[in-house]
Amino acid sequence: MLELNSKNKKWRFTFRVTLTTIFLSLLALSSLAIGFTSFLFGRQNASDLSSQIIEQTSNRIDLRIRALLDVARSQSEINEKLINSGQLRASDTRHDEPLTSEDFPVISDYFLEVMKVHKELAYLSLAIEATGEYCMLEQKHESITSRRYIRNPDNQIEIHDYEYSNNGDIKYKVSEYNNYDPRKRPWYVAAKKAGRQTWPDSFVFWGTDSVSTTPGKTCATPIYTDGELQYVLTADFELRDLSKFLKNQIRVGDSGRGRPFIIERRSDDTMRVVAYPQAELLTELIKPVERNEEEVTTVVPGQEMQPTLVPIERFPDPVVQAFTKRLPKSLTTLPRSFSTEDQVVSFSFRAGAKTFIGSYQRLRGSNYPDWITCMVMPESDVLGSVQRNNLVNLVIGLSAFVITSLMCILLSTRISSPLHTVAIENERIGTFDLTAKTIGRSRITEVDQLLVATEAMKKSLRSFAKYVPTELVRELVSSQNEAQLGGQKATLTVYFSDIQDFTSISEKLTAEDLVDHLEDYLTAMSEQISQDHGTIDKYIGDAVMAFWGAPTPNKNHAIDACRAALANQHNLQELCKKWRDQGKPELWTRIGISSGELVIGNMGSEERLNYTVIGNPVNLASRLESLNKVYGTKIIISQKTKELVSDIFVLRPLDLVAVKGQEIGNYIYELIGFRNETKRETIELAEEYEAALTTYIDSHFQEAAKKFEFIMKKFPHDTPTTLLLKRCLHLCEHPPTKWDGVHRMSFK
How many CB atoms lie within 10 A of CB 270? Predict the structure, then answer.
C-alpha cells in the first residue's frame, strides 16, 4: 500500500510492499529474462526451420515446372530443326520448297510418335503463314486426334480429323469450317511479334464438342526463311497436371490448411492463378467480347459462354487475394528485367481474422514464362511448436514463481492485509461503490475496530442511497464538496407514471400483499429508468417521477426517456402474465413525458435538501399522464418532446389541448414505438388520424367527421378516433361562435 503526504508530496511505502516488491521484482526479472531469451531463440529456430522447409518445397515445385516447360521448349526446338532440314516433307523432291498441306500426313505421323513418348504434351501443331493451313495433334486420355485444316480448290477450309485409339483403330471424318484462321490466334500473334520462341499468356483450350475448362500453356516458335516468317510451331501442356502435382505431392504446413499455387504475370500486366490444388477454381465462364475479323481472338465459334482464367482480384480464395495484394511492385507492375526477386521471399499477412505466412519465388530464366511460385500457410503451423514450448515453460515458470513468492507474501499479508482492505474499501466508498462483500475481522484490536467501523459506515450509506439518486450522491462524494442550497436552469425531460385503477386494486389486497405487489412493479420500472440513464426523483404512492439530463448531462435526454417508457410498457406485459399465473391482480401504468427548461438543483432548507426539478414541464408531464385516461392511450408526450424525438419514434398527434392552468393550446402526441419496429398498419393509422385532426383543427367538422368515420371502419377500437368523431358530430350540430381548435381541460 502507498500513500501521498499532502505537505511534502513524498511517496511512502508499507513494510509489506517494500519487502514483497524487492523480492518479487528480482524473481520476476530473472524469470522474464530466461523466458524471453527462450522465446526469442525458439521463435528464431522455428523461423529458420520453416524457411528451410519453404525453400525446399519451392525448389521442388520449381523443378517440376521446369521439367514440363523444358519438354515443350526442347521439343519445339527439335521440331524446328527437323523442318529446317527438310525431314518432315512428304517427298524428297521438295526438299527446298516450303511446307504445304501435302506434308501434313508426314508431320502428323511424326507428332504422333512424339506424343507417345511425351505424355505430358497435350498439343503439337504447325501453322503455315502463307496459306493459314494448320496441322495439330491433340492428346486425350483415351486417344490422340490429328486435325488438319486444309484449303480446298474453292479456297474454303476443310477439317480432316483422324482419331487414333489405343487399340490401333483410326476414325476419319471431313467437315467444312470457313472461319478458323490460326494466324489470328493469340499464340501465333505473340510468336510473330516476339520473333523468337516465346510463351504466350496461358489460356483455356478449345473443346471439340463442348466448352472446355482445361487451362493450358503454349510454347510458340516462329520459323523464318531469309527473314520472312514461314511457320509457327507450338507445343502445349495442360496446366491441370501442375495442379494435380500441387495437390497430391506438395504439403504446405502441418495443419493441411496451407496451399501452394502458381501465378502468371500476363502481357497486359494482369495476374492469373495458373496452378492450384483445386484446379476447378482456375476458370470461369464469361460472355465474350464482340470482335471484328481483324482482331486477335480467343473466342470459340458457336459458343455463347466462353471459358477464361479467373482474374486474381476475383479468385475465389480470399487468402490468395490477400497474399497477392502484399506482393512487391517489382513483381506486378515493373518490367521483368527490373526485378531482382529470384530467391524465396517470405512475409506474414492477415486474411480475415487469421495470420498467414506467405512466400514466393520468381521462375528464373529469360526462356521461361513470367511465373511466380507461391505458398501460404497459417502462422500457427510455423509457430505451433514454439507456442507449445513457451506454454510449458510459462506454466513451469509461473508455478515456481508462485511457490517461491508465497512465503514472502504470506508473511507480510498477516500484518498489513487488514489495513490494505480498509484502504480499498474507503476508496470504493469515495466513488459510492457499496457493493463489495463484508470486510471480515482481524486479531489485532485496533485494526478490528477500524474494520467494524468501516463496515458500519457502508451499511449506513447503502441505506442512505435508497432515499436519494445514486448518481447525485456519487457526484457529491467524488467532488468532496458539501451540498449547497441552489439550482440552475437546464433543458431536461420529465417522466410521470401512475398505475391505472390503483385505488380499487389496493382495496382488494392486504397491506402486506399490496406492499409486496407494489415492490415488484416499482423495482421493474425503476431498474429500466436507471438502465436508460434516468434519475428517479421520487415515488408518490404508486406514482413514479423521474427526469433525464441531470445530474449527468445527456444530450439525448428526451430519446432515453421515451425509450424507457416503451420498455416499461413492454416489461409490464411480461409482469402481468406472471401475475396472472400467480393469481395476483394486473397493474397497468399510464405515462406522461414533457421536455423543456427547468430549474434543477438542491431545493429545501439548509438542514434538509431535496435534489429535484421545478418548472412548467413538471406540471405538464403530470397532466399528460392523466390525459391518457381521456384518450385511452398509454404514453403521451409533449410538443417539445416530440420535436426532440420525432426522427426516432412513431408519434401520433392526439389533440390540440390546453391543460388546466394554461390558456395556450399545445399539441399532445401518443408515443407508439420505434420507427424501424412499428407495423405499417399502425403507421397508416397515425398518418390518417393526423390528416383528420388537421381538418378538425381547421374547423371543417363535417369533412373531419367523414375522415374519422373512415378510420373507425378500419380501426373500430381506436379510442382517440372515437373521441374525436363524437366531438366533430357535436360541433356539426352546435357550431361554435369562436373557434381556435384548442380543447381546454378542466381537470388536473
Answer: 14
Q: Does residue 227 contact residue 259 with C-beta atoms inside 8 Å?
A: no
d(CA 54, CA 728): 87
Confidence of residue 388 (pLDDT cuts 50, 70, 90): low
pLDDT tens digit sequence for 579-635: 999 888 999 999 999 999 999 887 766 666 677 888 899 999 999 999 999 999 999
Distances (CA, A) of 610 to 465, 484, 543, 603, 638: 13, 11, 18, 5, 26
pLDDT higher than 90, residue 556: yes
What does the alpha-carbon distance between residue 241 and residue 244 come to, in Å, rounded to a whole number? 5
Cβ neighbour number for residue 134 with a 10 Å cutoff: 24
728 pLDDT exceeds 90? yes
pLDDT tens, residue by residue, 223-233: 998 889 999 99
Between the alpha carbon of residue 532 and those of residues 165, 498, 617, the distances in Å are: 82, 19, 20
Contacts 24+ apart (CB under 8 A), 267-272: 267/190, 267/200, 267/201, 268/201, 269/332, 269/333, 270/311, 270/312, 271/311, 271/312, 271/324, 271/332, 272/201, 272/202, 272/309, 272/310, 272/311, 272/312
| pLDDT score of 8 | 46
Contacts 24+ apart (CB under 8 A), 381-384: 381/253, 381/254, 381/255, 381/257, 381/258, 381/357, 382/46, 382/47, 382/50, 382/253, 382/357, 383/43, 383/46, 384/254
What is the band of 532 on the pLDDT scale with cuts at 50, 70, 90?
Answer: very high
Rounded Cα distance, 469 and 536, in Å: 6
**Ordered DSSP codes for 435-480:** --------SSHHHHHHHHHHHHHHHHHHHHHTTS-HHHHHHHHHHT
**Mean of per-residue pLDDT scores for the chain:** 81
**How is 71-137 classified by DSSP, letter by letter?**
HHHHHHHHHHHHHHTTTT-S-GGGTTSPP-GGGHHHHHHHHHHHHHH-TTEEEEEEEETTT--EEEE
Give the HSE-up count for residue 719: Cα atoms under 13 Å, Cβ half-sphere.
9
The CA-to-CA distance between both ends of the chain, in Å, stands at 60
Tens of pLDDT, residue by residue over 87-109, are 888 776 566 788 888 889 999 88
HEC states along 324-357? HHCCCHHHHCCCHHHCCCCCCEEEEEEECCEEEE
Top-confidence residue, 449 or 196: 196
3-state DSSP assignment of residue 185: coil
